[in-house]
Amino acid sequence: MEESKFCSESLVVKTSIVFPTDTNTYGTLFGGKLMAYIDDTAAIAAMRHARRGIVTASTDSVDFLYPIHEGNAVCLEAFVTYTGTSSMEVFVKVNAEDLITGERHLCALSFLTMVAIDEHGKPTKVPKVIPQTEEEKSLYESAKERAEARKKRKKETEELAKKYRSLG
Ligand SMILES: CC(=O)SCCNC(=O)CCNC(=O)[C@H](O)C(C)(C)COP(=O)(O)OP(=O)(O)OC[C@H]1O[C@@H](n2cnc3c(N)ncnc32)[C@H](O)[C@@H]1OP(=O)(O)O
Protein backbone atom coordinates (compact mmCIF):
# COMPACT_ATOMS: atom_id res chain seq x y z
CA MET A 1 0.00 0.00 0.00
CA GLU A 2 1.22 3.52 -0.84
CA GLU A 3 1.99 5.63 2.27
CA SER A 4 0.21 8.75 1.02
CA LYS A 5 -1.64 10.02 -2.03
CA PHE A 6 -2.65 13.38 -3.48
CA CYS A 7 -6.32 14.45 -3.28
CA SER A 8 -6.27 14.70 -7.07
CA GLU A 9 -5.62 10.95 -7.31
CA SER A 10 -9.08 10.22 -5.88
CA LEU A 11 -10.94 12.92 -7.85
CA VAL A 12 -14.22 11.78 -9.42
CA VAL A 13 -16.18 13.97 -11.85
CA LYS A 14 -19.65 12.81 -12.85
CA THR A 15 -22.02 14.71 -15.13
CA SER A 16 -25.53 13.58 -16.09
CA ILE A 17 -28.56 15.17 -17.72
CA VAL A 18 -31.70 15.38 -15.56
CA PHE A 19 -34.37 13.37 -17.39
CA PRO A 20 -38.13 13.46 -16.60
CA THR A 21 -37.81 10.06 -14.86
CA ASP A 22 -35.34 11.64 -12.36
CA THR A 23 -37.65 14.45 -11.24
CA ASN A 24 -40.23 15.10 -8.54
CA THR A 25 -43.65 16.69 -9.09
CA TYR A 26 -42.00 20.16 -9.37
CA GLY A 27 -39.90 19.15 -12.38
CA THR A 28 -36.67 19.28 -10.40
CA LEU A 29 -34.21 16.52 -9.56
CA PHE A 30 -35.61 14.18 -6.88
CA GLY A 31 -33.61 14.56 -3.62
CA GLY A 32 -33.23 10.80 -3.18
CA LYS A 33 -31.74 10.50 -6.65
CA LEU A 34 -29.23 13.24 -5.87
CA MET A 35 -28.30 11.52 -2.59
CA ALA A 36 -27.67 8.28 -4.49
CA TYR A 37 -25.42 10.18 -6.94
CA ILE A 38 -23.54 11.72 -3.98
CA ASP A 39 -22.99 8.33 -2.30
CA ASP A 40 -21.97 6.71 -5.57
CA THR A 41 -19.45 9.43 -6.43
CA ALA A 42 -18.00 9.44 -2.91
CA ALA A 43 -17.66 5.65 -2.94
CA ILE A 44 -15.65 5.74 -6.18
CA ALA A 45 -13.37 8.49 -4.79
CA ALA A 46 -12.74 6.43 -1.64
CA MET A 47 -11.98 3.29 -3.66
CA ARG A 48 -9.58 5.24 -5.88
CA HIS A 49 -7.78 6.41 -2.74
CA ALA A 50 -7.73 3.11 -0.85
CA ARG A 51 -7.78 0.63 -3.76
CA ARG A 52 -9.87 -1.49 -1.40
CA GLY A 53 -13.50 -2.35 -0.82
CA ILE A 54 -15.27 0.36 1.17
CA VAL A 55 -18.54 0.99 3.00
CA THR A 56 -20.31 4.25 3.75
CA ALA A 57 -20.08 4.79 7.52
CA SER A 58 -21.93 8.11 7.58
CA THR A 59 -23.12 11.09 5.59
CA ASP A 60 -23.11 14.56 7.11
CA SER A 61 -26.12 16.72 6.39
CA VAL A 62 -26.97 17.46 2.75
CA ASP A 63 -28.46 20.92 2.29
CA PHE A 64 -30.22 21.37 -1.03
CA LEU A 65 -29.29 24.97 -1.79
CA TYR A 66 -30.73 25.34 -5.28
CA PRO A 67 -33.11 23.21 -7.41
CA ILE A 68 -31.75 21.27 -10.40
CA HIS A 69 -34.26 21.47 -13.25
CA GLU A 70 -35.17 18.88 -15.84
CA GLY A 71 -32.79 19.27 -18.82
CA ASN A 72 -29.99 20.71 -16.65
CA ALA A 73 -26.72 18.89 -16.26
CA VAL A 74 -26.01 17.77 -12.71
CA CYS A 75 -22.24 17.93 -12.15
CA LEU A 76 -20.65 16.21 -9.14
CA GLU A 77 -17.04 16.41 -8.01
CA ALA A 78 -15.69 14.29 -5.15
CA PHE A 79 -12.30 13.64 -3.60
CA VAL A 80 -10.79 12.36 -0.36
CA THR A 81 -9.88 15.26 1.91
CA TYR A 82 -8.61 13.51 5.03
CA THR A 83 -8.04 10.05 6.47
CA GLY A 84 -7.90 8.44 9.89
CA THR A 85 -6.67 4.87 10.19
CA SER A 86 -9.34 3.15 8.11
CA SER A 87 -11.74 6.03 7.50
CA MET A 88 -11.73 8.57 4.68
CA GLU A 89 -13.58 11.85 4.59
CA VAL A 90 -14.90 12.55 1.09
CA PHE A 91 -16.05 16.01 0.02
CA VAL A 92 -18.74 16.15 -2.66
CA LYS A 93 -19.72 19.31 -4.51
CA VAL A 94 -22.83 19.41 -6.72
CA ASN A 95 -23.40 22.03 -9.42
CA ALA A 96 -26.36 22.45 -11.77
CA GLU A 97 -25.59 23.69 -15.25
CA ASP A 98 -28.07 25.17 -17.71
CA LEU A 99 -26.71 23.59 -20.87
CA ILE A 100 -28.11 26.33 -23.10
CA THR A 101 -26.89 29.42 -21.22
CA GLY A 102 -23.93 27.83 -19.43
CA GLU A 103 -25.12 29.31 -16.12
CA ARG A 104 -24.01 27.24 -13.11
CA HIS A 105 -25.28 27.14 -9.54
CA LEU A 106 -23.77 25.40 -6.55
CA CYS A 107 -26.66 23.17 -5.40
CA ALA A 108 -25.30 21.01 -2.60
CA LEU A 109 -22.20 20.20 -0.58
CA SER A 110 -21.69 17.09 1.45
CA PHE A 111 -19.10 15.23 3.51
CA LEU A 112 -19.24 11.46 3.71
CA THR A 113 -17.13 9.07 5.74
CA MET A 114 -16.16 5.89 3.96
CA VAL A 115 -14.33 3.03 5.69
CA ALA A 116 -11.98 0.64 3.89
CA ILE A 117 -12.62 -3.00 4.67
CA ASP A 118 -10.59 -6.15 4.21
CA GLU A 119 -11.75 -9.51 2.86
CA HIS A 120 -13.41 -10.28 6.23
CA GLY A 121 -15.34 -6.99 6.25
CA LYS A 122 -13.07 -5.54 8.98
CA PRO A 123 -11.77 -1.94 8.84
CA THR A 124 -8.29 -1.79 7.31
CA LYS A 125 -5.58 0.88 6.93
CA VAL A 126 -5.69 3.48 4.15
CA PRO A 127 -3.01 5.84 2.75
CA LYS A 128 -2.70 9.37 4.15
CA VAL A 129 -3.70 12.42 2.10
CA ILE A 130 -1.43 15.14 0.74
CA PRO A 131 -3.43 18.33 0.06
CA GLN A 132 -2.02 20.63 -2.64
CA THR A 133 -4.50 23.36 -3.66
CA GLU A 134 -5.85 26.06 -1.33
CA GLU A 135 -9.28 24.33 -1.31
CA GLU A 136 -7.71 20.96 -0.44
CA LYS A 137 -5.56 22.50 2.30
CA SER A 138 -8.49 24.32 3.85
CA LEU A 139 -10.64 21.14 3.83
CA TYR A 140 -7.74 19.09 5.24
CA GLU A 141 -7.11 21.54 8.08
CA SER A 142 -10.78 21.66 9.13
CA ALA A 143 -11.33 17.88 8.85
CA LYS A 144 -10.22 16.91 12.38
CA GLU A 145 -12.93 19.10 13.88
CA ARG A 146 -15.59 17.46 11.66
CA ALA A 147 -14.30 13.99 12.60
CA GLU A 148 -14.67 14.86 16.31
CA ALA A 149 -18.23 16.10 15.73
CA ARG A 150 -19.06 12.80 13.96
CA LYS A 151 -17.73 10.76 16.87
CA LYS A 152 -19.95 12.71 19.24
CA ARG A 153 -22.96 12.33 16.92
CA LYS A 154 -22.37 8.58 16.57
CA LYS A 155 -22.39 8.20 20.39
CA GLU A 156 -25.67 10.11 20.55
CA THR A 157 -27.15 7.91 17.79
CA GLU A 158 -26.07 4.78 19.68
CA GLU A 159 -27.80 6.11 22.81
CA LEU A 160 -30.95 6.81 20.80
CA ALA A 161 -30.78 3.34 19.24
CA LYS A 162 -30.64 1.78 22.73
CA LYS A 163 -33.62 3.85 23.86
CA TYR A 164 -35.84 3.13 20.86
CA ARG A 165 -34.84 -0.52 20.59
CA SER A 166 -36.22 -1.05 24.07
CA LEU A 167 -39.48 0.74 23.16
CA GLY A 168 -40.09 -1.61 20.20
C1 LIG B 1 -21.01 1.81 -0.39
C2 LIG B 1 -22.27 1.45 0.44
O1 LIG B 1 -23.28 1.90 0.14
S1 LIG B 1 -22.09 0.47 1.81
C3 LIG B 1 -23.69 0.30 2.54
C4 LIG B 1 -23.96 1.20 3.68
N1 LIG B 1 -22.99 1.08 4.75
C5 LIG B 1 -22.95 0.03 5.61
O2 LIG B 1 -23.68 -0.94 5.53
C6 LIG B 1 -21.92 0.12 6.72
C7 LIG B 1 -22.40 -0.51 8.04
N2 LIG B 1 -21.45 -0.27 9.11
C8 LIG B 1 -20.33 -1.04 9.27
O3 LIG B 1 -20.09 -1.99 8.52
C9 LIG B 1 -19.39 -0.69 10.41
O4 LIG B 1 -20.09 0.08 11.36
C10 LIG B 1 -18.13 0.11 9.93
C11 LIG B 1 -17.28 -0.77 8.99
C12 LIG B 1 -18.49 1.41 9.20
C13 LIG B 1 -17.28 0.50 11.14
O5 LIG B 1 -16.95 -0.70 11.79
P1 LIG B 1 -16.62 -0.77 13.37
O6 LIG B 1 -16.46 -2.16 13.73
O7 LIG B 1 -17.58 0.11 14.09
O8 LIG B 1 -15.17 -0.17 13.37
P2 LIG B 1 -14.54 0.98 14.24
O9 LIG B 1 -15.36 1.46 15.37
O10 LIG B 1 -13.14 0.50 14.51
O11 LIG B 1 -14.45 2.16 13.17
C14 LIG B 1 -13.62 2.08 12.05
C15 LIG B 1 -13.45 3.48 11.51
O12 LIG B 1 -14.71 3.97 11.06
C16 LIG B 1 -15.00 5.21 11.68
N3 LIG B 1 -16.44 5.26 11.87
C17 LIG B 1 -17.23 4.27 12.35
N4 LIG B 1 -18.51 4.69 12.37
C18 LIG B 1 -18.51 5.96 11.89
C19 LIG B 1 -19.53 6.93 11.65
N5 LIG B 1 -20.82 6.68 11.93
N6 LIG B 1 -19.16 8.13 11.15
C20 LIG B 1 -17.88 8.40 10.85
N7 LIG B 1 -16.86 7.51 11.04
C21 LIG B 1 -17.19 6.32 11.56
C22 LIG B 1 -14.23 5.17 12.99
O13 LIG B 1 -14.00 6.47 13.49
C23 LIG B 1 -12.96 4.48 12.56
O14 LIG B 1 -12.12 5.41 11.89
P3 LIG B 1 -10.50 5.27 11.91
O15 LIG B 1 -10.14 3.85 11.59
O16 LIG B 1 -10.05 6.18 10.84
O17 LIG B 1 -10.06 5.66 13.28
From TrEMBL:
<comment type="similarity">
    <text>Belongs to the acyl coenzyme A hydrolase family.</text>
</comment>
<dbReference type="GO" id="GO:0005829">
    <property type="term" value="C:cytosol"/>
</dbReference>
<dbReference type="GO" id="GO:0052816">
    <property type="term" value="F:long-chain fatty acyl-CoA hydrolase activity"/>
</dbReference>
<dbReference type="Pfam" id="PF03061">
    <property type="entry name" value="4HBT"/>
</dbReference>
<dbReference type="InterPro" id="IPR040170">
    <property type="entry name" value="Cytosol_ACT"/>
</dbReference>
<dbReference type="InterPro" id="IPR033120">
    <property type="entry name" value="HOTDOG_ACOT"/>
</dbReference>
<dbReference type="InterPro" id="IPR029069">
    <property type="entry name" value="HotDog_dom_sf"/>
</dbReference>
<feature type="domain" description="HotDog ACOT-type">
    <location>
        <begin position="8"/>
        <end position="120"/>
    </location>
</feature>
<dbReference type="GO" id="GO:0009062">
    <property type="term" value="P:fatty acid catabolic process"/>
</dbReference>
<feature type="region of interest" description="Disordered">
    <location>
        <begin position="124"/>
        <end position="168"/>
    </location>
</feature>
<dbReference type="GO" id="GO:0006637">
    <property type="term" value="P:acyl-CoA metabolic process"/>
</dbReference>
<feature type="compositionally biased region" description="Basic and acidic residues">
    <location>
        <begin position="134"/>
        <end position="148"/>
    </location>
</feature>
<protein>
    <submittedName>
        <fullName>Acyl-CoA thioesterase</fullName>
    </submittedName>
</protein>
<keyword id="KW-0378">Hydrolase</keyword>
<dbReference type="InterPro" id="IPR006683">
    <property type="entry name" value="Thioestr_dom"/>
</dbReference>
